[in-house]
């Protein structure tokens, strides 16, 4: 049965990140909207099968809004290019987001990406900092809030950070403008990340994303100028599998819909290309073109019986695609 991505909903605003989360059994999406000076939180309407406005968090130059649901509390980390970054908490007593914490602007000067994860029961988030004078910072949640835990990879203008668990070992892969992506591995003894090595010799990687097929682990490395690459983890190193032309790409996102593994490769100058993984050939094949202006993220969101792909746009409306199975027997 062939599949297709069709436009399901047009959201009338520009955005640069999309983060789904479930809170109190409902599905929400947090979107950073630098043009509207806010983090928009949308709620999925299971009856109408559409996203609806829920709330807005003020954010003058938001580049990422990261929701974290920990210990039955909802937090949103708001990363801004200017004016500092903050952490909000949903207050059930007044039904609104309350600012609870500032993030040290001496450590986080020009944030670019946020990842959140759990290690041994503790919640952490890490902010990639793209300032020449900044460093990517790791924060840990305790009873009173999130506190600075470790500074990583200073002075390298980091563009993206990806959390990967491989062979039972938590790792961070950090890409930057000035060197090949670096790998940090969690030390259980020190309760910190330690530098482990680099990913190949690929410079100026814009974004790092991972996916898994059966037991194999893969990385997608996107570049704005030059070709993007797909590599496979083999023991202690990554082996290059495929090169994809990607002029003007700010985002390369793998995602799985049931048993199908896709890859969305955006571009500021042409169509977004969606690829489908071919297991026998161990590579992606072109599948479909999507018309998204200046995409900055792709986020797969299963919403009950509807399979959605969110495509935030920096220059036009944010698009919500639906994954459909086409029955050709009719």
Automatic annotation (TrEMBL):
PROSITE patterns associated with the record = EAR (PS50912)
UniProt keyword annotation of Repeat present: yes
Q: Which GO annotations describe the biological process of this protein?
A: regulation of exocytosis
This protein's GO cellular component annotations are: synaptic vesicle
Q: Does the keyword Iron apply?
A: no
Keywords noted in UniProt: Glycoprotein, Repeat, Signal
Short name of one Pfam family: EPTP
Q: What is this protein called?
A: LGI3 protein
Q: Coding gene?
A: Lgi3
């Amino acid at each position: 049965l062939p599949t297709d991505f069709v436009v399901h909903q047009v959201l009338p605003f520009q955005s640069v990140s999309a983060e789904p989360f479930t809170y109190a059994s409902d599905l929400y999406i947090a979107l950073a909207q630098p043009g509207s000076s806010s983090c928009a939180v949308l709620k999925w309407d299971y009856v109408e099968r559409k996203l609806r406005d829920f709330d807005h968090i003020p954010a003058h130059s938001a580049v990422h809004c990261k929701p974290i649901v920990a210990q039955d509390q909802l937090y949103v980390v708001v990363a801004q290019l200017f004016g500092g970054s903050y952490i909000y908490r949903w207050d059930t007593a007044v039904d609104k987001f309350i600012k609870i914490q500032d993030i040290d602007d001496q450590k986080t000067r020009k944030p670019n990406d946020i990842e959140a994860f759990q290690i041994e029961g503790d919640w952490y988030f890490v902010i990639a900092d793209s300032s020449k004078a900044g460093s990517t910072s790791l924060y840990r949640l305790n009873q009173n809030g999130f506190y600075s835990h470790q500074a990583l990879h200073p002075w390298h203008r980091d563009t993206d950070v990806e959390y990967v668990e491989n062979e039972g070992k938590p790792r961070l892969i950090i890409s930057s403008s000035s060197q090949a992506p670096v790998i940090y591995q969690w030390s259980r003894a020190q309760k910190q990340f330690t530098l482990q090595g680099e990913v190949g010799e690929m410079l100026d990687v814009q974004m790092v994303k991972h996916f898994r097929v059966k037991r194999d682990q893969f990385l997608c490395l996107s570049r704005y100028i030059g070709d993007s690459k797909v590599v496979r983890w083999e023991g202690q190193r990554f082996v290059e599998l495929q090169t994809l032309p990607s002029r003007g790409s700010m985002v390369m996102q793998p995602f799985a819909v049931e048993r199908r593994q896709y890859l969305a490769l955006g571009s500021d100058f042409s169509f977004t290309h969606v690829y489908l993984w071919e297991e026998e050939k161990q590579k992606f094949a072109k599948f479909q073109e999507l018309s998204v202006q200046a995409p900055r993220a792709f986020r797969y969101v299963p919403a009950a019986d509807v399979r959605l792909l969110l495509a935030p746009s920096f220059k036009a409306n944010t698009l919500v695609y639906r994954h459909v199975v086409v029955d050709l027997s009719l």
